[in-house]
Amino acid sequence: MSLGVAARLMVQRRFAPLMVAQAMGAFNDNLFRFALVNLATFQGLTIFGLERELMVPIAATALTLPIFLFSSVAGQVADKYDRAWIMRRTKFVEILLMIAAAIGFFLNSGLLLVIVLFFMGMQSAFFAPARNSALPTLLEGKELVTGNALVSGSLNVAILAGAALAVVFVVREDAAFVLSATLIGVAVTGWLIMCLNKPAPADSPDLKISWNIVAQTGKVLGFAFRAPDVLRPLLGAAWFWMLAASVLTLMPLFTAAVLGGDETVGLALTALFTVGAAVGAVMCGVFTRGKDALIFTVIGAFGLVIFPSFVALTTLGWPEPDPSDLASADVFLADPDNWPILAALALSAVSAGLFVVPLQAMAQRRAKPEVRGRILAAGGIMNAATASLGQFTLFAIALLTLPLQAAFGYIAVVSGLAGLFALWRMMRPGRYTE
């Protein structure tokens, strides 16, 4: 049973240190990023006197841009060197970056903090393909879906914890000290834990690394496009990241302009989505036996048709709330009329978790070992690109003068197409069964 596989993996050196260290890295990324965003939004932190409306997208771009730029080089590194060695080195770099972040917080320097955030994105760009290409080396085939589910679930929990603590820490009088101590402490602990992981040897040790970012980005994407059986799950996973970015971007305004809730309701709904995605990922890992996992993608896709459509259609006729009289989280959650919307949002998130995990395992399993790092790095490039596109969802809706519910309709339509395609692939003779 996959429940037994999950329990076994969580205590073994070939997997547990990797899972914990990557979760701690995700926690630090989001604690730092959301602390920066909150300081810019509520406490006037800026660079070159820019308005807060510009600081927030700058912070978001500073983290995703280096992932897009450097994933092609990181993929080569993951194919040439031992993947566990790469992850140890990147975790050590995280310690140095967190020390620089601490200096930025004590100096209240927006410019230094944005620069650190950029290099954190670069560090993540090198860690991710090493992690993803290490999993098929460290795990057996039947363990791959469960392993990805555990990684995805712990990642979502870490993201939520980092974002929530950022809100709590930045309002403290000793915010700089608390943030700095937490970031450095977590980075050091993550590095020590990563040092326990077993080796994950590379498959192309003689590869000559090219640092031409533009040429290598095209080349890495070419590897993926010449392997359509790998490209399809990579595109599906990229859709998930676009979905997540769209929802997280949309949620604060949807909360205020449609649901009539204040920022505490927005935080509660963001937590609901993040935890739901983690639950969906873990459910996939528990119930699959390593075969026919594509059925979970189909179930998740159709869940992303049903539940977002319910949210859109249910709220479409709601009266516009009074901006001066928004409900707090306790009032909003206590109203039974809001419970169907909460349930639909939670089930949308669970569906998203079910949708993405089999696709991640599929891409890892199908990629040829000698180019696995580069092909999975192509997935990182697509994820960064689509996540950036997802952040412009509100802009497109405003430009077309559409209601906010249109975003949920868009999610439903594209998810339905993805689900139909996955179902067609399952029913084809000679189909892949993972």
Automatic annotation (TrEMBL):
**What is the protein's given name?**
MFS transporter
Cite the InterPro entries for this sequence: MFS, MFS_trans_sf
Q: Which SUPFAM superfamilies match?
A: MFS general substrate transporter
Q: Which residues cross the membrane?
A: 31-48, 54-74, 95-128, 148-169, 176-194, 209-227, 239-259, 265-287, 294-319, 339-363, 375-400, 406-424
Q: Which domain of life is it from?
A: Bacteria
Q: How does it sit in the membrane?
A: Multi-pass membrane protein
Instruction: Please name the source species.
Output: Glycocaulis abyssi
Stretches of the chain forming a coiled coil according to its record: none
- Localization (cell): Cell membrane
Q: Does the record bear Amino-acid biosynthesis in its keywords?
A: no
Q: Which UniProt keywords apply?
A: Cell membrane, Membrane, Transmembrane, Transmembrane helix, Transport
Q: Name one Pfam family in it.
A: MFS_1
